[in-house]
Specification:
Number of helices: 8
Oligomer: single chain
Radius of gyration: 25 Å
Helix content: 10-25%
Shape: elongated
Largest sheet: 6 strands, mixed
Order of helices and strands: EEEHEEEHHHEHEHEEHHEEEEEEEEEEE
Strand content: 25-35%
Distance between the termini: 28 Å
Number of strands: 21
Structural class: alpha+beta
Length: about 375
């Protein structure tokens, strides 16, 4: 197990900056997931770590040694590519063994050691019965495991995985999230794992590094990214359906605060002992409410918004309800109840004021978080 240190790395392609002054550490045996939308610079960051892209500036250290200018084949990092890149004329066994047969490893691995290592990795990945097949005879999930096996077999100091399960269908991705985390724990791997899927990032990562346009936005654990987000960007990124956003004015009262939602003609009242909120009195703020922190009723309750129930989508264990509120704005509510009898009717959306999030209207930075969610285990499902 080894520690990876990334210090102020940047990568420019002409006038375009793909990665900008990015710094983070990955501790021994830790898995860090890089999360961000398409074009955020995730893969470029990984390629810089692997040595496949030359840094414009900054340094990368592996166990205290500067590897910034070391060729990729000498960095002791193994990269898993999104497209698997399996050799079609080779069997699963031969594909997995390929890295061990490199000229630089001939003294380290004879055939007996190679076969022993293949059997060990194949057993871990549950593909022992596939070793004599070729890629054309494999399913998508089996190809994914084979490609992962070729990466794991080297026993590198750090694994770099670029969207390793993105090509799998939803059922396989669901299963592989748990299996990948289990494999990393069994091997004691140090892992940098790229994904655009927030569920995958929060499920697999010990810590999650959120990037936007090549810059670090937030680095924290799953609870931080889900419930203590640094800004509106992170709040919108982690959540499906995304967090509901409202514009309001913050008022201070006796022992409580009130958010005036003028467009919705509603007031959201909440209690807080955080003194820093008072400096936002009478200022425009952004209110964020996750769909699972809202409920539906047929009568007006405190902290309610009026609207029309316009659509119901059945999900695996809940319903995703679309509500049309003022000026054609749509919001989403997650519920265990199917409100089909209320479709196209006037209803009230009740906000759990203890679990709201407030952001600065000017720059989107966080200014307040309500109570930490009871659980985010639904993300790990």
């Amino acid at each position: 197990m080894y520690r990876l240190e990334v210090k102020n790395i940047s990568k420019n392609f002409g006038k375009t900056t793909a990665v900008k002054n990015l710094s983070f550490n990955c501790e021994e045996g830790e898995t860090i997931t890089l999360l961000g939308p398409t074009g955020a610079g995730k893969t470029t960051t990984l390629r810089c770590l692997a040595g496949l892209e030359e840094l414009t500036s900054g340094n990368i250290y592996l166990d205290g040694k500067d590897i910034s200018n070391i060729p990729p084949n000498h960095r002791e990092l193994a990269m898993f590519f999104e497209n698997y890149a399996l050799y079609p004329h080779m069997t699963v066994r031969e594909n997995i063994a390929y890295p061990l047969r490199a000229p630089s490893r001939r003294k380290e691995f004879n055939e007996e050691k190679i076969n022993k290592r293949i059997e060990e990795i194949a057993g871990l990945l549950q593909i022992s019965e596939l070793l004599d097949r070729k890629p054309s005879e494999l399913s998508g999930g089996q190809k994914q495991r084979t490609a992962l096996g070729r990466t794991l077999v080297r026993k590198p100091k750090v694994f770099l995985l670029d969207e390793p399960i993105a090509h799998l269908d939803a059922v396989l991705r669901h299963r592989m999230r748990g299996e990948m985390k289990s494999i990393f724990q069994k091997l004691g791997c140090t892992v940098i794992y790229v994904t655009h899927d927030y569920r995958e990032a929060l499920s697999i990562g010990d810590r999650i590094l959120v990037i936007k346009k090549g810059e670090l936005v937030q680095l924290g654990n799953a609870e931080d990214i889900w419930g203590k987000m640094n800004n509106v960007f992170v709040a919108k990124l982690a959540g499906d359906p995304p967090i509901n956003i409202f514009k309001g004015i913050l008022h201070t009262g006796e022992g409580n605060f009130k958010i005036e939602l003028r467009k919705q003609k509603a007031d959201i009242v909440f209690e807080s002992k955080k003194e820093n909120l008072k400096k936002w009195e009478e200022k425009e703020i952004i209110l964020g409410v996750r769909p699972n922190n809202m409920t539906i009723s047929t009568i007006k309750k405190p902290n309610s918004i009026n609207g029309t129930l316009s659509a119901i989508e059945a999900m695996s264990s809940s319903y995703e309800i679309t509500v049309s509120i003022s000026e054609g704005k749509m919001i989403k509510v997650k519920s265990k109840i199917n409100f089909k009898d209320l479709l196209n009717k006037q209803i009230w959306v009740n906000i759990d004021s203890e679990r709201i999030h407030l952001f600065n209207y000017q720059d989107g930075e966080s200014i307040y978080h309500g109570r930490t969610p009871v659980s985010y285990t639904h993300l790990r499902a």
